[in-house]
Predict the 3D structure of the following.
Amino acid sequence: MFETEELADGFKVYISESHRFGTDAFLLANFAALGHNEVVLDLCAGCGIVGFLLFLTKNPKLIHAVEVQKEAVDLMRRTVEENKLTNFDVRLADLRDLDSNAFHGGNINLIVCNPPYKAEFSGLLSKRGDVAIARHEVMCTIDDICKVASRLLGVGGRLCLCQRSERLVDTLVTMRANKIEPKRIRFVSFKMGRSPWLFLVEGRRSGRPFLKIDPPLFLEADSRATPELLGIYGKL
């Protein structure tokens, strides 16, 4: 069964019980800097939410969205058809199989990814395959994501992703090992005084070592959404 969520006036996104979205998708789409006329690749796309947010707020030339689960791909295709999008390409594929010919030799400027947060053997693994794939590194690891980014991005191309704070070292080390140099990072906390639960990171293919730490992002103050969070949602 599926339902829809309205992102902006008349723009509906199809979702299901297994393939929904949360605040982290909005934070990642907002964090990802997009230049004029650039081509985006969304890996681990799920229902396509990050790509659709970029389409609505940053006007890319073309978005490719890759997802390994057929139900999620069907949802994305419904959304594309419902909203009559002509520059949103949906692919049912295992990202590990993507090579430089996957997009007809086109130049990918930016890769975004909201990956599974938990390592394969950490925490309780859901008995539901769709949930396990979304939450644990069952079908792909951070290393797989960085490897494909290194293959598909040209020099200076960017990879932006979000991940739980406890995976920080894993993520930065793996990016650098695959020639994706971490260049910018931002930590996200629910409120001031709380440890970060999430971080957002941008790396550049073959970039020089230099890491900029952005000011932290807080989601709540006085039991209300912060002005910055409201501003992120307000862009829609």
In short: The chain has one domain: 2-234. The CA atoms of residues 160 and 202 lie 4 Å apart. The domain at 2-234 is CATH 3.40.50.150 (Rossmann fold). Residues 70-82 form the longest helix (13 residues).
